[in-house]
Amino acid sequence: MKKGVVLLAAESVVMTVIILTLAIMVGRLSASAFPVVSKLGVQIIAELLAFGCWWGLNRWYPKAKVSWRGHGEPHQWVLILPVIIVLLGDSTLNPQFNLSLGPTLTAIMVGLSVGLFEEYVFRGVLVSALRQRYHLGAVMTAFISGVMFSLVHLVNVSNGSLTMTLVQMLEAIGLGFFFAAIYLVTANLWLPILAHGVIDGFDALAFGALSNTAGMSVWTSLIYAVVFGAIGYWLLKTKRYAVKIPTSSGSHVDFSSHQPQRRPAIQRQPVPMIKTAVAIAIPLAELGLGATVVAVTTNQWLRVVLVDLIFFAGLCTALYLYRDVLVSHWQRYKHHLGTGLLVGIGGVIAAYVLLTVIRQGLNLIGVASAGSASVMSIQTAGMALVASLTTLMAPFTEEIVFRHALFYQWRGRGAVTWLMLIISSVAFGLAHWNNFHGQLVQMIPYMCVGALFGLIYYFSRNIWQAVLTHFLFDMIQVIAVIAMFILAIVSQG
């Protein structure tokens, strides 16, 4: 299977979880501001917001051409009748129907909003993209759609038992495969949206929530998976129905420019020593001048502004020195922004896990000191926000200096290449000298993170992948500072 297929499928799950989590947070804030919004109302708001986010994301990547109405055959609606099996099965789980007008309308809206969002992502975008970009067969496309749809339900383990979550995931595989088959043979996304909406709307009306796992068993879910998998396979293979989602987009979008390009071979290039020396001087100058500013300036606001200006000068110098590398790498990287974002998110998760493990290991052997507060943490909220500008500039400057000048441009030199990885990682950790007040032990975890960023650059062969990963890593700290600033304003209001 092509690597792009795996990355696209995984990205559909990761981005869905992230987007839906943020959308639920917004929905809960709405409920706090407007107490009349119920729990199901929060669900509706979250699903619609998430749909809007994914609709916008698809215009950027993967640019799948989603077919909403197909060719309009009037008999297509009969293909969704098998969902009656689920309704009959769920009716045996002791439902508590409330058929008054308000709950009924809410249940209908919940079902349609959930169906709209999840079907748009896993059938409309994912199925269309797999066919249009990678020319997968219909059965394999439907199978991947069902598996990814199932994996999203793994997040439900936080609200219930692992066993019930796995039971729900087993059912989701079969239903996801069946919904994908309907979309493939009709090119009408509204049919799986309606089928999905009927099931979820029924559960919301019968149980007051989108959980029908009470009383469910592995055997019940296995029956659902087998029955709907068989029906879906029959739809895709029977001669009565032709697959109508083609393996070409049929639109004016030029997918050829997004096809995987051959990775450039690692070649041994001469190292420009003068540029390298100037690059090395940038973090040294930032450290020295920053320490001087702190020593000779008593006004805290003046300190922050001067340090920001020093880092900005370093950023401009680094960008000017290696502008040719940045431009040439960007020409390749811009065609894979979606994949790059997924790799970047994975890199951030790996970096924070690595930080935690290294720090815990140092604590266990008794060599880690207690304090690790940075200069920014002792500033007022306003100064911390201004000081965080250096955090936004750092990924660009530091990746150019430590990952490119001190490591990547030394590739193809055997043991020297990996020696430079160690040197650049140690230097990256030492560059945080002022942040940890010279406590060397506190810099060791950042040396390890520097090595991780170096490996990301080495295997991606693109500096922008390292920059994006580093930027997302630092952005979490900036978001924390912004939150602190907002809380300070609220508390003083």
From TrEMBL:
Which keywords are on file for this protein?
A: Hydrolase, Membrane, Transmembrane, Transmembrane helix
Signal sequence segment: none
For this protein, the parts annotated as crossing the membrane are 12-34, 40-57, 77-93, 134-154, 166-186, 216-236, 276-295, 301-323, 335-355, 375-394, 415-433, 439-459, 471-490
- Return the EC number: 3.4.-.-
Protein origin, superkingdom: Bacteria
- Single annotated GO MF: hydrolase activity
Question: Residues in domain CAAX prenyl protease 2/Lysostaphin resistance protein A-like?
Answer: 103-201, 384-475
Q: Which InterPro entries match?
A: CAAX_protease, Rce1/LyrA-like_dom
Return any one Pfam family short name. Answer: Rce1-like
PANTHER family membership: CAAX AMINO TERMINAL PROTEASE FAMILY PROTEIN, SLR1288 PROTEIN
Q: What does the similarity note say?
A: Belongs to the UPF0177 family.
What name has this protein been given in UniProt? CPBP family intramembrane glutamic endopeptidase
